[in-house]
Write a structure and sequence with these properties.
GO terms for molecular function: GTPase activator activity. It comes from Littorina saxatilis. This is Rho-GAP domain-containing protein. Keywords: GTPase activation. The protein is α+β, with helices and mostly antiparallel strands and about 650 residues long. The chain contains 23 helices and 14 strands. The strands form four sheets. The chain has an eight-stranded mixed beta sheet, sandwiched between helices. Strands 1-6 form a two-stranded parallel ribbon. A hairpin with a 4-residue loop joins strand 9 and strand 10. Helix 7 runs antiparallel to helix 14. The protein starts with 13 loop residues before the first helix and ends with a strand.
Length: about 650
């Protein structure tokens, strides 16, 4: 029996319980084979190390070999102290587990003299932490608090397990994920002290509660703005795919280190469920995209999901109660059947779809994804963010979790959050404020149907999960503009990794018996001379001015360089007498410019950006405010290319 919605005054969780009841009526029950499976002993640590980029350690243990402390120090030398501690903790746990499995009667020295706890509050050395902010613990020195069992674990979803211990010390270390500074307190209700649902209300998020330090600026209706980094703000889509696995490895390690500080654990259950291989609903997101990219190259979200969003934005943004008022069950069932038959044929008529029915289809599509939008790996981690005492650290954790999502899930989440924010922006008309939206969407993102034969019970644990998941969705919607950024400290670490790898390859190529020709030390090509003199060559293969030598100064930005390839600059050069056309359609302005096809001029537009390519990075689209002279000193061997980036 579904739990009745709570009664009370003010903004409570009424919408959440109402939506949860509708989901229970709509979904039915799961077979036992569909339930999440608990990983075997040691499997979680092995998977974590593999995802963090340390799969070679797992392979070494599997082959019966051990890893010395010195070797472990070497493989973690590019990490900060807290990141290294997180890795070492999993390595030691896995090592102990593997030894127990292979020889229960054998004693290892590490079992007699365990690794000392490195979590003591000794201050970190300045060289061991990159961009380290100061965290202040907002927790009291209370004893261990047992978290209630999860309502969702009974419903076949994720499981909240273990205990959370509030740290009795100040947390003064860590790598910044986003640069924030707190002014005031983000107050959350104490959900553990109340047994009545009606006594719980969601925390209020107000821009006036939080300000930022000198690295950020507070804007109208915007709590945070991107950090004013001289090397530019890097959005998730700015990095090449080759660099994203490195970013995700660092994000996993940093998130784990942050959770370790507060003794927070989360489960990563294995799901045993056969997805559909055709149709629109219940099909894996990756498979849907594979089909859709063949139809529309460059598609980043499923065409059906995009069509739902477009129809709702056109017809329902100002409609009162949108997302809250359910559609007709009969009409929705008929629409599903018709969409399955006609959508990809292009014969479906959206003009006949009622907005509330379309909203119901959107929520069903999200719920029926075989792998949830937030993935089984991190579905439990998102609500655990609520156990972090500081709002600023919560935002950092959410930023890291978004970085960890697969690309197709992250892109779809962004489109969904942007749509929800548009609904909130029309709340004066549609009566759907931020609290209403988050309470309705939380069960659609986190709930799952109940297994057969399992009782549907209610209680305090239900209330805790409802409040936590709703609050997390609320933060995702409200702060989405600052959650899709890549921490500058991660870029610093990646550059260090590239330099280390380049040095290693260089040493491998050295032949000790070969005499060095000292004259080669004085042979420098033009590019090296350009670097010494602060001159870079910018390539623009798709534009009329295909290349240009530019002398950098202390004020020049990436945007200034792109401006030199716009029409106002290009016309002046091409109209001058210094340009000489050549038979192949190319020409040169003295020796600093090269032109392609001057009779069919192409200039940089608003979507043209400067890219940093190679050197100690794979590829990065530069923020127009990037200080080029500082970046040039950090990556002097990079190529500089102007390209179109429609996603920035």
């Amino acid at each position: 029996m579904a739990t009745a919605a709570p009664q009370g005054q003010g903004e409570h969780l009424d919408d959440y319980w109402r939506e949860a009841n509708e989901i229970e009526k709509d979904q039915g029950e799961l077979d036992d084979d569909d339930l999440p499976k608990t990983p075997d002993e040691g499997e979680a640590e092995a998977q974590w190390l593999t995802n963090a980029g340390y799969g070679f350690i797992v392979n070494k243990f599997s082959d019966g070999r051990d890893l010395s402390d010195d070797e472990l120090e070497v493989v973690t030398q590019s990490l900060t102290r807290h990141q290294a501690e997180a890795v070492k903790k999993r390595v030691n746990t896995l090592s102990t587990t593997m030894r127990k499995k292979k020889g229960a009667n054998k004693m290892h020295v590490k079992d007699i003299f365990p690794t000392p706890d490195n979590s003591s509050p000794e201050p970190p050395s300045p060289s061991s932490i990159i961009d380290a902010p100061v965290f202040t613990s907002g927790a009291d020195n209370s004893a261990t608090k047992q978290r209630p069992s999860s309502f969702l674990s009974r419903k076949g979803g994720y499981k909240l397990e273990g205990a959370i211990m509030e740290p009795s010390r100040s947390v003064e270390q860590g790598v910044e994920a986003l640069s924030f500074k707190e002014r005031g307190t983000f107050n959350r209700p104490n959900t553990r002290k109340s047994s009545s649902r009606s006594s719980i209300s969601l925390p209020s998020i107000s821009d006036a509660e939080i300000t930022v330090d000198f690295h950020l600026e507070e804007k109208d209706n915007q709590a945070f703005e991107a950090k004013n980094d001289p090397l530019g703000v890097t959005l998730i889509g700015d990095l090449a795919e080759v660099d994203m696995p490195k970013i995700q490895s660092l994000a996993l390690i940093e998130l784990t280190a942050l959770f370790d500080l507060y003794d927070i654990t989360y489960s990563r259950p294995k799901r045993k469920k056969k997805p559909r291989e055709h149709g629109l609903f219940g099909v894996p997101l990756q498979l849907l995209l594979e089909w859709d990219i063949k139809r529309v190259p460059g598609t980043k979200v499923p065409l059906f999901f995009h069509a739902l969003i477009v129809h709702l934005e056109k017809e329902a943004l100002t409609m009162e109660g949108i997302l809250r008022v359910p559609g007709s069950v009969t009409r929705v069932r008929q629409l599903r059947q018709e969409l399955e038959e006609k959508f990809y044929q292009g014969s479906f008529n959206w003009s006949d779809v009622m907005p509330n029915d379309c909203a119901a289809l959107l929520k069903q599509f999200l719920r029926e994804l075989p792998t949830p939008l937030l993935t089984y790996d991190y579905l439990d981690a998102f609500p655990q963010v609520e156990h972090i005492p500081k709002t600023l650290e919560q935002l950092k954790a959410l930023n890291l979790l978004i970085l960890l999502l697969p690309t197709e899930h992250r892109d779809m989440l962004m489109v969904l959050l942007q749509f929800l924010k548009k609904i909130v922006s029309h709340s004066n008309t549609n009566k759907m404020g931020l609290n209403n939206i988050c309470m309705i969407m939380a069960p659609n993102l986190f709930l799952a149907p109940a297994p057969k034969g399992k009782p549907k019970t209610g209680g305090q644990h239900e209330l805790t999960i409802a409040a936590n998941t709703s609050s997390v969705v609320k933060m995702l919607i409200h702060y989405q503009d600052v959650l899709w950024m890549i921490p500058s400290s991660f870029l610093t670490q990646i550059r260090h990794q590239y330099k280390t790898e380049t040095s290693r390859k260089s040493r491998d190529r050295m032949r000790p018996w070969k005499k060095k020709d000292k004259s080669e030390a004085y042979k420098k090509n033009a590019a090296e001379l350009d670097v010494q003199n602060g001159v870079i060559r910018v390539q623009a293969p798709d534009l009329t001015k295909s290349s240009c030598l530019i002398q950098l100064d202390e004020q020049m930005t990436a945007g200034d360089i792109v401006d030199k390839f716009r029409r106002d600059h290009g016309t002046a050069h091409m109209g001058g007498h210094s340009f000489h056309a050549k038979p192949d359609g190319k020409g040169s302005s003295s020796q600093s410019h090269t032109f392609n096809n001057p009779h069919n001029a192409q200039f940089a537009d608003d979507k043209a950006y400067l890219f940093e390519v190679g050197g100690n990075i794979g590829e990065r689209c530069l923020d127009p405010q990037t200080n080029m002279l500082q970046l040039y000193h950090i990556n002097p061997t990079a190529d500089w290319v102007i390209r179109i980036n429609v996603d920035r």
